[in-house]
C-alpha cells in the first residue's frame, strides 16, 4: 500500500499560494503534504522563502484531512532543537495529530544566516544526533535538562503537548544516516531510489515508514517541461556534497551554468506522458519506499494536481481513472 504525498515548495511559491495549493491537493486525494523549511531559495528564479512554520499553522486550519510534515527542518543552528520541539507539538495540536516532523542535518545556504559559521560534516552530524535526542525527549516529556557537546537544555518543558507524539522522520543521504534514523527516529526520508538506504535502515532495526521525494514536471509538451525543470530545478544536479556547502543563490547560479535542460531531464521526468512519470515513481516503490512525495517542479500546480487526480492516483492505487 503506497501513501501519496504532495510537495509544497516554499522556494517556488508564496505563502498564500502554498495554502491554496494544499487545499486543492486535499480535494484531489493526496494523503499528506510535505513543506520545505528554508530561509533562502536555491536559485534566484525560484523567488520565495516564506517561514514554513507560519505557513504550517495556516495549512492546519485551512484543511481537515490531509497529513502535514516538514521535509525537512534542520535543528542544528538556525533553530535550537527545543524551539523545533515546541513548534512540532503546537502543530500536532492545531492539526489534530496530522503532523510529522521531518528532520535533516541541513545546508550552509540556510544555516549560515545566524553568523555562527558552517561546521564540517562530522560536527554537523554530531549536532544533529544531539538535537534528535532533545526533540524526542521534549515531545515525550522525558527530558527537561540536557548537556551535550553542542546543545543544552535548562529545565525545558512543553506545556502544550499532544497526546500522540509527532513522529520524527530522519533524512538520510547515506547508510550511516539511515542507521541513525533507525536508532533515533520514527521513520526515514530520502531523495534517491537507493536500496542501500532501505537496507541500512531496516538492518539497524528501523520499522517505521520510508518516505521519498520524487521530482517530476508535468506539462503539455516535453520541451516546455524541460525548460521549466531547468529553470527551477537545475540546482538539484549539483549533488549533495556541493549543495550542503554553497552559501548563496549566486553560488548556485555559478555552479549550475554548465547544466542543460537535457541534463535536468535525466533526473526529473518531463512532459505529458503518464507512463514515464509512473515509471520513475515505481522505481522508488520497488526499492522499498512506501510514502512518496510528488514534487511538481515549477508554477503549474493546478494542472499537475488535476493530472494526479485523474491519472496518477488511480494508476498508483490500482483503481480506474476519471473521465
TrEMBL record:
Residue ranges of domain Luciferase-like in the record: 11-291
Molecular function GO terms recorded: oxidoreductase activity, acting on paired donors, with incorporation or reduction of molecular oxygen
This protein's record includes keyword S-adenosyl-L-methionine: no
Domain of life: Bacteria
Annotated EC: 1.-.-.-
InterPro entries in UniProt: F420-G6PD/mer, F420_G6P_DH-rel, Luciferase-like_dom, Luciferase-like_sf
The entry's keywords: Oxidoreductase
Keyword Oxidoreductase attached: yes
Enzyme category, top tier: oxidoreductase
Database matches in PANTHER family: 5,10-METHYLENETETRAHYDROMETHANOPTERIN REDUCTASE, PTHR43244
Protein name, UniProt field: TIGR03557 family F420-dependent LLM class oxidoreductase
Origin organism lineage: Bacteria, Pseudomonadati, Pseudomonadota, Alphaproteobacteria, Acetobacterales
Amino acid at each position: 500500500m503506497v501513501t501519496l504525498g504532495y510537495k509544497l515548495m516554499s522556494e517556488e511559491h508564496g505563502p498564500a499560494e502554498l495554502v491554496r495549493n494544499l487545499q486543492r491537493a486535499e480535494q484531489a486525494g493526496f494523503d499528506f503534504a510535505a513543506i520545505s523549511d528554508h530561509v533562502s531559495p536555491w536559485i534566484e528564479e525560484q523567488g520565495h522563502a516564506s517561514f514554513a512554520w507560519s505557513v504550517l499553522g495556516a495549512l492546519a486550519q485551512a484543511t481537515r484531512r490531509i497529513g502535514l510534515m516538514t521535509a525537512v527542518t534542520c535543528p542544528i543552528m538556525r533553530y535550537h532543537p527545543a524551539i523545533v520541539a515546541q513548534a512540532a507539538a503546537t502543530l500536532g495540536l492545531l492539526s489534530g495529530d496530522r503532523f510529522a516532523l521531518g528532520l535533516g542535518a541541513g545546508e550552509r545556504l540556510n544555516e549560515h544566516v545566524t553568523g555562527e559559521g558552517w561546521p564540517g560534516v562530522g560536527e554537523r552530524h554530531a549536532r544533529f544526533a544531539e538535537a534528535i535526542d532533545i526533540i524526542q525527549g521534549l515531545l515525550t516529556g522525558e527530558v527537561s535538562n540536557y548537556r551535550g557537546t553542542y546543545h543544552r537544555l535548562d529545565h525545558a518543558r512543553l506545556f502544550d503537548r499532544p497526546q500522540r507524539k509527532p513522529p520524527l522522520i530522519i533524512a538520510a543521504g547515506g547508510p550511516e544516516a539511515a542507521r541513525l534514523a533507525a536508532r533515533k527516529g520514527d521513520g526515514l526520508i530520502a531523495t534517491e531510489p537507493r536500496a542501500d538506504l532501505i537496507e541500512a535502515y531496516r538492518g539497524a532495526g528501523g520499522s517505521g515508514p520510508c518516505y521519498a521525494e520524487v521530482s517530476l514536471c508535468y506539462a503539455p509538451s516535453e520541451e516546455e517541461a524541460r525548460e521549466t525543470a531547468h529553470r527551477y530545478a537545475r540546482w538539484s544536479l549539483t549533488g549533495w556534497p556541493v549543495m550542503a556547502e554553497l552559501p548563496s543563490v549566486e553560488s548556485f547560479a555559478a555552479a549550475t551554468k554548465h547544466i542543460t535542460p537535457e541534463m535536468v531531464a535525466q533526473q526529473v521526468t518531463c512532459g505529458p506522458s503518464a507512463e514515464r512519470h509512473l515509471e520513475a515513481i515505481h522505481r522508488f516503490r520497488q526499492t522499498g519506499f512506501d510514502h512518496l512525495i510528488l514534487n511538481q517542479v515549477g508554477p503549474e500546480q493546478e494542472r499537475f494536481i488535476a493530472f494526479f487526480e485523474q491519472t496518477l492516483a488511480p494508476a498508483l492505487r490500482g483503481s480506474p481513472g476519471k473521465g
